[in-house]
Amino acid sequence: MSELALTARQIHYTNKAFWRNPAAAFFTFVFPLMFLVIFATLLGSGTITLESGHEFNQSTYYVASMAVFSVITACYTNLAISVTFQRDAGILKRTRGTPLPGSAYLGARVIHVMIMSILLVVICAAFGWIFYDADLPTGVSLIRSIVVVLVGSASFAALGLALTPAIPNADAAPPIVNATILPLLFISGIFFPVGPDAPQWIETLSDIFPVRHLVDAFLGSFYGPPLFAFSWVDVGVVAAWGLAGLFLATRHFSWEPRT
Q: Does the global pTM surpass 0.90?
């Protein structure tokens, strides 16, 4: 059997295992919606003035930002933590000892979280359209949004795998993963729009990392001009971080528990 066929079969098994854990599946999909409702209810009653000078409904802003949050949560946070737990439980070591290629196993895990992230974005968009009158992208904007989600999910999955060698054990996985991503979520416009009055150091710092670029790319593709400008440079920066993560994961990924 070819490696592509093995990867496809492993995707099927990974997806089946995911849905056979209904509690984890339920909260994977409810978590972003819960944040969307909370932020839209508490902070989404007014409008914000964008850098372009246009006013924008804050509740519909959170529709897009929580969609990006769901991509990062599924592809970076959840993947890094779950792979670390599997490594410490010896599952990765046993898998490595089977005829299944390691690339097929990890490729299936990456593709699975990418599929989950696409579903989460669709759910957030539909929820925002129904309850917050958020506009949905069409035509070229829709194609751009799909590209952004695919590039973003693949890149953050690669970064999640790249982080696992730096996690010493399963108990340390949640705090380390959250410590590396939560500050970036706050300064990159996920939870609060970053306005023109933000300190310059926040702008400079957020521009270095991929979260801000993924937010800008998704807002630009999802809502578009004149509210938000779309730039392929943002997509390129996210992709570059993903390639860097893939390189590090390829060189340093560990299949065996730390001793």
A: yes
